[in-house]
Amino acid sequence: MSSTQKTYRVAILGATGLVGRTMLDILEERRFPVSDIVPLASARSAGREISFKGRTYIMQEPSKEVFADVDIALFSAGSGASREWASVAASQGAVVIDNSSAFRMDPDVPLVVPEVNPGAIFREDGRPAMIIANPNCSTIQMVVVLKPLHERYHIRRVIVSTYQSVTGKGKAGRDALESELAGEKQESFTHVHQIAYNAVPHIDVFQENGYTKEEMKMVNETRKIMGDDAISVSPTTVRIPVYGGHGEALNIEFDDDFDIDEVRRLLASSPGIAVQDDPSQDLYPMPLTAYEKDEVFVGRLRRDYWHPKTLNMWIVADNLRKGAATNAVQIAEQLVGRL
Amino acid sequence: MSSTQKTYRVAILGATGLVGRTMLDILEERRFPVSDIVPLASARSAGREISFKGRTYIMQEPSKEVFADVDIALFSAGSGASREWASVAASQGAVVIDNSSAFRMDPDVPLVVPEVNPGAIFREDGRPAMIIANPNCSTIQMVVVLKPLHERYHIRRVIVSTYQSVTGKGKAGRDALESELAGEKQESFTHVHQIAYNAVPHIDVFQENGYTKEEMKMVNETRKIMGDDAISVSPTTVRIPVYGGHGEALNIEFDDDFDIDEVRRLLASSPGIAVQDDPSQDLYPMPLTAYEKDEVFVGRLRRDYWHPKTLNMWIVADNLRKGAATNAVQIAEQLVGRL
Asked: How high is the ipTM of this complex?
């Protein structure tokens, strides 16, 4: 790139959170063309310093004025803050990439995983949508893997069981596990129940249909991102005492039959995927090895011998990275040269 | 029962292991009519004392002679020990209830879960088989739940993802997790890889077909216990850092349609099952709450809205109890009055 490359003013709402801090790390790692950052946080954290690329910034509270010169605003401060500030930022000319669930199912808001549907970011006139939603972590890693398989074999049905990291609840989630493991008494359970030495089949709130909101995100967001309402996802989401990423056991039924070696090659050559599948070397994806990586790791690839045209696999991705911050920054990368 | 009730001499092979010790606890808890016990262990542990119902016993090494007056022998010392001693004990007149995988798929050996197929214990002449196999832990808890559903709706297909306790590897498995959490360096990984803060999709050894032996046990043992080779089980088994029991996410497709309230009532009234299914009270099965209990806990009961006649659920049971020791003692209870 030339030295005259355009650079962007990037706001981060929720800069003190685990995802917000990871967003800053990833902007730097991926050499995103940042002119400067505008770190935003609640009144509690405003005034504190934060460093980025060797410069020190002071955290501010969000306001209409603060978004005036912002090109791209990465939001990760929860649905309430997103509902309050997204349209304000957009009205000031900032493109908002929102990590909350506030706008994901809004038909006017694109829900984007760059490996899957990057084109959804842009309107017919070539301009980007002013609010772009970043999907739920469990959904992102799944659709990265489903996309090439759907194009080749056409997916009919997915049954998924998740093994989700405590960092899905941010720093509070991580701290809860640590203090529980240290034997400290918890007044309230961040993960609904104690998570140390436990597995809790309850992420986000229960809906009337018996599924949790986390589960219904996997059902609905997958259809929207894949652009195919015929794909059915039947999920069970479970929190377990790990940090490094979310695991998912997937059983995928296709319309067309497949060859397992072709599946392996197809996935290995698809963007954002790293195949780790050598049982003879005890190699398969794990949260410990996916930690701080950007890929979706795929392994345990094997035919479901008990049902036709059906595949079993196990995938893991770092939920703070590809499941949140990396995906948001990858969306921002699509905007480079288009703003 | 009258004071003249017949009592039995019960040998425990592997009395120092987690399952062996739990067997002793459960014999006592359930007031099994024991005259005395014969605790057996390897040369390393022989000579050590063990207490049972207030009496002290000396551990012995197994030998032909030691089985001479034994009525029932509970084996839990691994497949090698079972292969070496089961036929010896049987030839001495002891009925062997074997917790290893050595004889499970032997067509001459019944594989028994008392809630499912108690009749398989006995031959046509009314005498019990001299070797009776106790199934794999993951299989036992699943078939307890599948049995009443199969009778009512006829099961076609089960997709199962497991969340398995470290105690599946006995004391070594528990100690590995504790020392890893304490930050102690492990020379060898009991769970193939570090298990603290991890999820390892690898239990027992890999087979040529890409499934692990643990997974194939769920496939094959389920058919044998249920007495129906048409039931297909498609499994992914995963070790996670919990103690209290194994979790399983089940997706079950039936031939006949069901009513979800009827399913709940059917399970609640079936032996060995405790329904814990009240999302409004954050009530569902968990390893922490299943610990040291004998039931299979069932919850998260909900229709798979994306596939006809299909049910999702989440079950947990203490793998050392119903998954091993309790089931073995329940088999022994079937023998009372029949030896």
From this structure: 0.96
